[in-house]
Amino acid sequence: MGMTNLNRRSILAALGALSVCPSAALAKDYIDLDWADLVPDGQQVIPPVIQGLIDHDGPALSSQQPASQGVRTDWNGKVVRLPGYVVPIDYSGTGITAFILVPFVGACVHVPPPPANQLVFVTTGVPYEGSGMFEAVNVIGMFGTASTSTQLADIAYALSADHIEPF
Fold first, then answer.
1. How far apart are CA 71 and CA 89, in angstroms?
2. Pairing of strands 136-149, 154-166
């Protein structure tokens, strides 16, 4: 669906190469990251202020976002894989073209957002046809620090997705 002949040929060629050289299937062209990798040393991944009960009748959740205590630049310009949950931001006719990747279900919508250094703004040229809000995915693509502000939260990182797959 929506796949060009060039993309089909590229995929078939890649699959053919993998069948000829099985070790190529095991090679990783990305760095596996975890959410703890995004916070500076000595910081908690999930601050205690958002680990407790949430007062949904209080101020807007975005106003309850804890301050970020810095970012890590170790992976700027690197291709990484990061698991997380999808909070859609922008749609096209066939899927999601921009979303916030969050470390836990409910972040930014049902509970206050995590600090900016625990959020990643993901964009993709090929719309992702996900199964809905808070789908668990792995995102592979070029990673870097990039301060972004949305109506839901401030975000410290960006990822240009080459590949998005269910987790």
1. 23
2. antiparallel
66/43 Cα distance (integer angstroms): 13
At the topology level of CATH, where does 29-166 sit?
OB fold (Dihydrolipoamide Acetyltransferase, E2P) (2.40.50)
Which amino acid is located at 98 in the chain?
Answer: A
Contact in structure between 42 and 25 (CB atoms under 8 Å)? no
Q: Per-domain residue ranges for the chain? A: 29-166
Alpha-carbon distance of 154 to 135, in angstroms, equals 21
Q: Determine the Cα–Cα distance for residues 156 and 118; give it in Å rounded to an integer.
A: 8
Give the tokens for residue 64. 């309850």
How far apart are the C-alpha atoms of 140 and 127, rounded to whole Å? 14
- Name the token pair of 83: 């698991």
The reported pTM is 0.71
Burial class (CB in 10 A: 0-12, 13-18, 19+), 34: exposed
- Give tens-digit pLDDT for 3-56: 333 333 333 333 333 333 333 333 479 999 999 899 888 776 665 545 554 455
Residue 20: the pLDDT is 37
How far are the Cα atoms of 41, 44, 94, 130 from residue 137, in angstroms, in the given order?
A: 26, 23, 18, 9
- C-alpha separations of 116 from 78, 82, 148, 155 in Å: 20, 16, 9, 4
